[in-house]
């Protein structure tokens, strides 16, 4: 008769293990018995999520432009070029400025087309210049700058002085009439205009050089182009001449103004 030793105990342990596996509490039974299972071997099949393998979006570097030094040049963002709403402007041409516009037409349309990216057309029948934004126009204020440029030329300013309105943002035009300062008629009005202009335009040039502005005398109208403070100084000199102040005192004031301008800059 065989001795009931290890064989019976092994059989009982195997029966217990099989019963635990069938009941689904194998892991808990082992932990209760003190035999810990490594965490990397415990996998709960019901809670695992399926892994979806996606193909890598393999955009080759052939799409990138490479410069001479080997650095990639990426294409610009399409949204960087902001769309400008289509606008149109019409600037009428006075009769006395039609011939100067015709002679300097190449200098007039070049900054509008090349710098501001506008479309320009001359309407000969109605005597006006038409402006329109294009697809290449990126500056929202381009149509307004072009309108100011043409109006400055129509007022009588030189083409180079009018072009400064496109390059600088702090330039303005102020216009007023002599009758706004003092009511003058006949010879009194002519003498006031003569005092502003001076002999051979000497007084007008002195005002322009001292205040760094540009002055246009169009009969009884006066137009001043320049910065805000510069226009104020030039207007004070012109008003003093209209009111009858001697030109010698105006020259003295202009010397003081020019010396202050030099110290400032």
TrEMBL record:
BP GO annotations: ribosome biogenesis
Organism whose genome encodes this protein: Starmerella bacillaris (Yeast)
All residue ranges annotated as the PNO1 second type I KH domain in the record: 175-258
A GO molecular-function annotation: RNA binding
Protein's name according to its UniProt entry: Pre-rRNA-processing protein PNO1
Pfam families associated with the record: KH_KRR1_1st, KH_PNO1_2nd
Main location class: nucleus
Positions with biased composition (Polar residues): 7-25
A Gene Ontology cellular-component term: nucleolus
Family: Belongs to the PNO1 family.
Coiled-coil features, chain-numbered ranges: none
UniProt xrefs under Gene3D superfamilies: K Homology domain, type 1 (3.30.1370.10)
Keyword Nucleus: yes
Spans annotated as Disordered: 1-25
Keywords: Nucleus, RNA-binding
């Amino acid at each position: 008769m065989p001795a009931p030793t290890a064989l019976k105990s092994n059989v009982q342990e195997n029966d217990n293990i099989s019963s635990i596996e069938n009941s689904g509490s194998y892991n808990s039974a082992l932990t209760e018995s003190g035999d810990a299972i490594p965490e990397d071997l415990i996998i709960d099949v019901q809670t695992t999520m399926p892994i979806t393998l996606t193909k890598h979006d393999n955009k080759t570097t052939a799409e990138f432009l490479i410069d001479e030094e080997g650095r990639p040049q990426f294409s610009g963002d399409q949204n960087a070029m902001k769309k400008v709403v289509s606008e149109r402007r019409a600037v009428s041409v006075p009769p006395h400025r039609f011939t100067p516009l015709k002679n300097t037409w190449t200098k007039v349309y070049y900054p509008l087309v090349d710098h501001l990216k506008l479309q320009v057309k001359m309407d000969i029948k109605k005597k006006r210049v038409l402006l329109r934004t294009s697809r290449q126009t990126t500056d929202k204020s381009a149509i307004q700058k072009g309108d100011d440029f043409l109006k400055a030329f129509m007022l009588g300013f030189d083409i180079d002085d009018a072009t400064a309105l496109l390059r600088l943002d702090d330039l303005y035009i102020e216009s007023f009439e002599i009758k706004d300062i003092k009511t003058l008629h006949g010879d009194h009005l002519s003498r006031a205009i003569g005092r502003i202009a001076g002999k051979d335009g000497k007084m007008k040039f002195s005002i322009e050089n001292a205040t760094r502005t540009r002055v246009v005398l169009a009969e009884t109208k006066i137009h001043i182009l320049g910065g805000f403070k510069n226009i104020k100084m030039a207007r004070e000199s012109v008003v003093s001449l209209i009111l009858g102040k001697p030109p010698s005192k105006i020259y003295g004031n202009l010397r003081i103004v020019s010396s202050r301008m030099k110290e400032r800059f």
